[in-house]
TrEMBL record:
The keyword Cell membrane applies. SMART domains: AAA. Belongs to the ABC transporter superfamily. The keyword Transport applies. GO terms for molecular function: ATP binding; ATP hydrolysis activity. GO terms for biological process: peptide transport. Keywords: ATP-binding, Cell inner membrane, Cell membrane, Membrane, Nucleotide-binding, Translocase, Transport. This is Dipeptide ABC transporter ATP-binding protein. Pfam families: ABC_tran (PF00005), oligo_HPY (PF08352). Residues 8-256, 275-521 form the ABC transporter domain. InterPro entries: AAA+_ATPase (IPR003593), ABC_Ni/Peptide_Import (IPR050388), ABC_transporter-like_ATP-bd (IPR003439), ABC_transporter-like_CS (IPR017871), Oligopep_ABC_C (IPR013563), P-loop_NTPase (IPR027417).
Length: 543
């Protein structure tokens, strides 16, 4: 591909924070040929997204282009007027963002949003626009495209919304697609589907893809070239296999060292079940209108499982499989329509005593949403202690200092607000809040999916250390199979509300029994670190 004239060339490109601020992107250089996939990788704050946004002319203030060129099809995008860039954006360069729920308008139907770009950039009539929209929705695997056109974004799962966003962008057949962490919030199967759609469009339309990701497994499998970024600078770049399987730069090796090492935890010691879920069935209410009431949707269908004291049980499956709903039922946030849930020997569905809720704590996926933005960290951590009898203010303050130390944060963080912390630091606070009352069970719902790979490693190491220190059991809900393999004693696999397989981590990963488990493992196929320090794509048992 090196002999082909570049579609995109970025030369000595710099982005500055305001007129007199530091450089967010510092003399970046790379080029892309038609149909080529180039990945930008690095930790949060490395400048990946800023560089990509500059290509499409969407730099947020106070960011500004300081110097350099971005040549697209021979024209310098930095010299184009706003109106000229508006004509390029969408028609020739498209962008898919990390969270489609943010980029899709919640007040407009899918059909209205898909039509916007075609009305702006083409002379097609409404009938042709609808026909093309229906055809594109069929191509991306939407079973009922007509219903989809008339539906709103909130009616779809995360994976379906990301497909719809990709369809909207690809309707105009852009020459360059910028994909900013397009699979981070998706389960393993949805990730594979979205990536395959992108690859299919590349093959059929010759579209080049600028792929921004912290998932090195995806990058090594699909990208032709990779640019490793740190603090706005390109540390290393070149063919993907050369860079990621034989890195030269220390920073690249540091990123790769965050990958999981092949292996499984030993089985947890045999202990009395702390949680005993028996034939639990949970329904979500159906859609309701002024003159109608829809049928309830079954979210969990007759699931039975146990969690022993001190054990980590991982719950995996596709989006909408019922994982989170089942976890919420244990802490009393969702009421089953049938079945029994015993916690420490007490049937929590029949008991009027809510003491068990103090012994169950949740860690949510996004600490930005789950931490009060108006409260200081000390107040957030102390809140669960408010109703502990006999605890003086001095004792509460001491407990806060202790938990800050245990989660690896210095005392100065006590007076800060959540927005002053990084993503990893906020997740440490969320873990501390969950553990400050020394619960017997922690339910961790996708606790690392919003973090980059090095921070993921730090949080997993912290979680493992704290579990040994505090002795809590854990229901670990995740679509990250590499993390599950590292942290879980046992794994339970859910599909469409049902439990299809459960066993030790080694058994499920190395000798899966159910066809759906095979599919999950085949879709993941992660890049793993070998005992000798080398890196390779692991072939799953499903292959």
């Amino acid at each position: 591909m090196d002999t082909v004239k570049p579609l995109l060339r970025v030369s000595n490109f710099c982005i500055q924070v305001a007129a007199d601020g530091p450089l967010a992107v510092d003399h970046l250089n790379f080029d892309m040929a038609p149909g080529e996939i180039v990945a930008l990788v690095g930790e949060s704050g490395s400048g990946k997204t800023m560089a990509a946004r500059a290509v499409i002319g969407l730099l947020p203030p106070p960011m500004r282009v300081a110097s350099g060129r971005i040549e697209f099809q021979g024209s310098d995008l930095c010299s184009l007027s706003y109106e000229q860039m508006r004509q390029v954006r969408g028609s020739k360069i498209g962008m898919v963002f990390q969270e489609p729920m943010v980029s899709l308008n919640p007040t407009l139907t899918i059909g209205q949003q898909m039509a916007e770009g075609m009305r702006l950039h083409t002379d097609l009539d409404d009938k042709t626009i609808v026909a093309r929209s229906l055809e594109m929705l069929r191509r991306i695997g939407i079973d009922d495209p007509q219903r989809c056109l008339n539906a709103f974004p909130h009616e779809f799962s995360g994976g379906m919304r990301q497909r719809i966003m990709l369809a909207s962008v690809m309707l105009l057949r852009p020459k360059l697609l910028i994909a900013d962490e397009p699979t981070t919030a998706l389960d393993t199967l949805a990730q594979a589907d979205v990536i395959e759609l992108m690859l299919e469009l590349t093959r059929e339309e010759g579209t080049a893809i600028l792929f921004i990701s912290h998932d090195l497994s995806l990058v090594v499998r699909h990208a032709h070239k990779v640019v490793v970024m740190r603090s706005g600078k390109a540390i290393e770049s070149g063919p993907t296999q050369q860079i990621l399987l034989g890195p030269k730069a220390d920073y690249t090796r540091q990123l790769l060292e965050a990958l999981p090492t092949r292996g499984h935890l030993d089985s947890a010691p045999v202990a009395k079940p702390l949680v005993d879920i028996r034939n639990v069935t949970i329904d979500h209410p159906g859609r309701q209108g002024f003159l109608f009431r829809g049928k309830p949707k079954r979210a969990v269908d007759g699931v039975s499982l146990q969690i022993a004291a001190g054990e980590t049980l991982a719950l995996v499956g596709g989006s909408g499989s019922g994982k989170t709903t089942l976890g919420r039922s244990v802490v009393g946030l969702v009421n089953p329509v049938a079945g029994e849930i015993f916690f420490d020997g007490i049937d929590i569905l029949k008991s009027a005593n809510r003491e068990h809720r103090l012994q169950c704590q949740m860690i949510f996926q996004d600490p930005v949403s789950s931490l009060d933005p108006r409260a200081r960290i000390s107040q957030i951590l102390a809140e669960p202690l408010r109703h502990v009898p006999g605890l003086t203010p001095e004792q509460r303050a001491e407990r806060v200092r202790t938990i800050l130390h245990d989660v690896g944060l210095s005392p100065v963080f006590a007076e800060r607000f959540p927005h002053q912390l990084s993503g990893g630091q906020r997740q440490r606070v969320a873990i501390g809040r969950a553990l400050i009352r020394h619960p017997k069970l922690v339910i961790a719902d996708e606790p690392i999916s919003a973090l980059d790979m090095t921070i993921q490693k730090q949080i997993l190491e912290l979680f493992e250390r704290l579990q040994k220190q505090y002795g809590f059991a854990c229901l670990f809900i995740s679509h990250d199979l590499a993390a599950v393999e590292r942290i879980a004693h046992r794994v339970a696999v859910m599909q469409q509300g049902r439990l299809v397989e459960i066993g030790s981590t080694a058994q499920v990963f190395d000798h899966p029994q159910h066809a759906f488990t095979h599919r999950l493992l085949a879709a993941a196929n992660p890049l793993v670190r070998q005992d000798d320090g080398s890196y390779q794509l692991r072939s799953s048992a499903a292959s």
